[in-house]
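During the second year of the project, the team shifted from modelling isolated chains to modelling whole assemblies. The rationale, set out in the original proposal, was that interfaces cannot be judged from single-chain predictions alone. As a representative example for this report, we include one of the complexes processed in the last quarter. Its constituent sequences, exactly as entered into the pipeline, are reproduced here:
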Amino acid sequence: MTPAASPTKRTLSTAEERRETVLEVGMSAFAERGFLGTPTTEIAKAAGISQAYLFRLFPTKTELIVAVVERANQRIYEAFEAAAKRAHAEGTDPLEAMANAYSALLTDRVMLMTQVHQHAAAASLPEVAEASRRWFADLYALVQRETELTTDDIHRFFATGMLLNVMAAIGATDEHGPWAQTLRVC
Amino acid sequence: MTPAASPTKRTLSTAEERRETVLEVGMSAFAERGFLGTPTTEIAKAAGISQAYLFRLFPTKTELIVAVVERANQRIYEAFEAAAKRAHAEGTDPLEAMANAYSALLTDRVMLMTQVHQHAAAASLPEVAEASRRWFADLYALVQRETELTTDDIHRFFATGMLLNVMAAIGATDEHGPWAQTLRVC
DNA sequence: CCATCGAGTGAGTGAGTGCTCACTCTTCGT
DNA sequence: ACGAAGAGTGAGCACTCACTCACTCGATGG
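Output from the structure prediction step:
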């Protein structure tokens, strides 16, 4: 049983690779049923590892939740950053670019629901609340730096984003009537 | 052990009175730790009844959750309605009156968190999503009828409300910096 | 070839958790 | 005075959940 051939073929993954997988499938799972509503067994199964090993990678469920939240927020930040950079290079409106980037992210139900669950979980998990605030501050600074808009416009920008979150979360579509059509516009 | 005296004194409550109490303390309990995070035992204890009886009053936990959500939404609607009526009588701006009414409601942490948890729970509980949509539609109709504003202004009104929700949920206060000061204004 | 170490798991465990059932005690109309 | 209807509960069932431990096995350097 000498593994003479295929020197780069690994049957075991590194812990870091596994953590990566767990974060990814964990985010999906949490998005569907919420942080408390999703058991760790389910995430372990989806990641293709035992629950016991999941707890070696993330010592508590809370730590996994916080890691998922951090990653989702980071992804939003990077999308905004890239959109602004592109807009500047192309000479188009950076705010519009960022708004479009956010809309695009929200079409991914996983990102959307992670946002909403994050805000709900902030009440019981101080680490989540802290992370939310930190990324809000960073995002605000980014928008302010890249657009040089008035605080009033920036307020409107974020407010619209939060309304979009809620509309999507409660499943409001244009068919539900004029109210949904009006409130779902960016 | 004859209860000879005190003929009008009732030691038992009616089921309706109990349901009322359960709704009230249930809303508080759910607000703190979320719908899934709050066990029914805790609510029963807070309401001063056995868990067994709680399940006679509300046959499933989900039914209790939906009842709590309905009540919170109804309270918001009534607050808006009263504010608009008062504004019309006094000749002041009805939109401003409703905005103030909402701000006042949000100072009650129970109402605030019930809103946020409702939006998060909408993903897993279709009844909650349906209730959210129904009350949003009613609220929209009310604002439109009472203010005769452009859809753009109504959009801004609701968007601001949702942003306020989130800011409060993640515990953002003015001390957290200029971003919080800007985004927390109505 | 072997020692060492990191990857990985089967099989739990104790503390809940929603919900049920058989039963008791009050109230109230007649 | 009595009996039906309603208020109310103790005890527990069936199941789930986060988390643990003793253990196996594959990879890698010397």
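The CA atoms of residues 140 and 158 of chain A lie 9 Å apart. Residues 3, 10-12, 39-41, 51-52, 55, 59-61 of chain A lie near DNA strand D (CB under 10 Å from a C1').
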